[in-house]
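Hi there, hope your week has been kind to you so far. For a while now I've been wondering how a particular protein folds. I'm sending you its amino acid sequence along with the backbone structure tokens. Could you read through the record and tell me how the tokens relate to the sequence? Take your time with it, there's no hurry, and the full record follows here.
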Amino acid sequence: MKSILFAILFLLVSKVCFSQSASIDRKVYLDSTWSETTSDNYKYYRIVKDYYSEKDLYVINDYYKSGVLQMEGTSKTKDGNSKEGEFTFYYENGYKKAVTNYVKSSPNGKSAEWYENGNKKLEGEYIEDAKTFFGTLKVFQFWNSKNEQTVIDGNGDYEEVSEFFHASGKIKEGFKDGLWQGSDQKMGYTFSENYENQKLISGVSVDSDKVSRNYKVVEIRPVPKKGYEDFYKHVGKKFKIPNMPKGVGGKIFLKFIVDKEGQIINPEIIKGIGYGADEEALRVVSAYTNFAPGEIRGIKVRCTFSLPISIQPME
């Protein structure tokens, strides 16, 4: 009888211990660029719920160094950089900053914004655009910093303002129209753009060296020059499958930076399968040298890129 009771208690304790270990969260320190850093040099920190569990969506909460909630939402990957669903952002004073829906890490769907004093700023909707980093924003209502509504039902004067960026112009039926002008202090350029029938017709940017660039697309994602088929053909040809147990396989999720020359640098595994396959994926991806870099207003920029690599289970 005692042995049976002991066995039951052992199973109960094991179950409790397993449940507790499976629900352990992870704290990640982030610097001003939202890159992972140490506890001695951080501006924000991130709590990933149930980090050590395998989940379809991970709950992600970001905090200011002060401990005030900065963002809450869900991610397909446990690093928190694959946004999916509704995200809410907050100012450090606790007021709500924005509520935006994301699909595959890009804004997609209804969005609302507020000023730091709590006044409403914007009501709009992001519409998916495969050519850009983010969806195209359709503006329904807009209030300036003086709490004056300058866009009503998709028509009026609109401005985009952030810490280093400013742009202003007209909105017609929800989209930019006519002449738009602005500047990006962080990247060091000014620009002038013309819009017609909800589309950018032409744009000119001038950098700090007075070099001008013409463009017809504001933002361009980095892509393999010969297409994704060529990239995955390279991976399939060069990937040497390590010795793995039968039945082991799945998707390796990794991220890397495509620099201004189109070179892949700083590859990292977001979610791996182990047994040496992760290291091999890093080696093969790093050897690919045929990317076209991303651009913002005709200026080449470094961009973070992420993708999956599927490994078939060994039979």
